[in-house]
Amino acid sequence: MMMPSIFGNSLFNDLMDFPFDRGFSGTSKRESTLMKTDVKEKEGVYELEMELPGYKKEDVTAQLKNGYLTISASKNTGSEEKDEKGNYIRRERYCGQCARSFYVGEEVRQEDIKARFENGILMLSIPKEEPQKPVEENTFIAIEG
Fold first, then answer.
1. Mean pLDDT score of the chain, rounded to an integer?
2. Does the pLDDT at position 119 exceed 80?
3. Of 34, 98, 105, nearest to 64 (Cα)?
4. Which of 40, 51, 116, 117 could staple 36 via S-S, CB 3.0–4.6 A?
């Protein structure tokens, strides 16, 4: 059954989300700003710059496994406001995580990747691995006679 939609969004999905957290394109504001990545190709390396606004270095991990580089970020924050008697006026919490993977090749080793985190931007330098040509072996065919 088709669900009615408003501006391209499913009406059912809109009911489950906080209404002021959505942009006009249908993605939430947080989705549109997290983990945007620029990839530059330079001689011998690829340079990645990934935006992680609001995250600290301790919140971010990078793992290389089976040729895939996976960047993960998780956050758990809370804020409280109390009146003079200690009663809650407002209490909010946020817990979330995001991850993104890139195939970098089976030949890349963990110690070859350089990473730096500054001002909410994760910068990675990944060496380019040239495809190795198979070594041709001279094989001789035995001639009988």
1. 76
2. yes
3. 105
4. 51
